[in-house]
Prior knowledge:
Strand content: under 5%
Low-confidence stretches: none
Oligomer: single chain
Shape: extended
Number of strands: 0
Amino acid sequence: xxxxxxxxxxxxxxxxxLLIVVSYLSSKRKPDSVRExxxxxxxxxxxxxxxxxxFMVWINQGWRWFSAKYGLIxxxxxxxxxxxxxxxxxLLVDIPWPLLILLVVVITYYSSGKKVGTTIFxxxxxxxxxxLNPRFWDKAIxxxxxxxxxxxxxxxxxxxxxxxxxxxxxxxxxxxxxxxLMQVIPSFCYLIPGxxxxxxxxxxxxxxxxxxxxxxxxxxxxxxxxLVDKEIIEAAESFGANKKQKLWGVQMPLAxxxxxxxxxxxxxMALAMVVIASMIG
Length: 281
């Protein structure tokens, strides 16, 4: 890659020059001649208006082509997510509310290390949601459904990708810049592609939660697998373990604390994102 870095710099320079030329030729506010740019240097004080690249036209044309060619694929994805949303929501609605509160209390008791105070507090807060207004309970069910589906998607996609980038340096070099980009974009921007592709509703909210929450799970899965001692892997190889056996018998069990931490971070980020996603879902 280093031997091509010099040519990449020339390529970036050529693209920049091409954008300048195209923006000048396509602008409706360009000067009558290039000579005016030399004689009148006022464009150095304020950003020149003749730098008007027609990105909007290109994006609209590309979007119309993309929708016509791949629209059915996203319709199928939206239908699958909508079906999953309906099934999970109906399942939670059909459970009697006392039984649902009891189930959450039991899960809280064991997941918190059998802390009675935390368990009572969670049960009391959950009861107050419906006690204040029954509509709040319905909205809580909808929010829980969106978060559950988003976290499930993160686990199903994030862990395999984390395994792949931990085992293949080329995949790692390709995925890490994407993860960096996903984590620096403001969270509200994740809703834009979901709205464009799927419209308003629960589906873009699920997509936004997935995009926002999956990077920590991928990174921590990758980290957990790479932190496994080489001596342990060499010991497994000495006993004749193949790649599959090393992964599921050695690396995954030892990386499980990091993976569970990734799921924890994924859950926290999903809860943070669902507040923003509620504006469209």
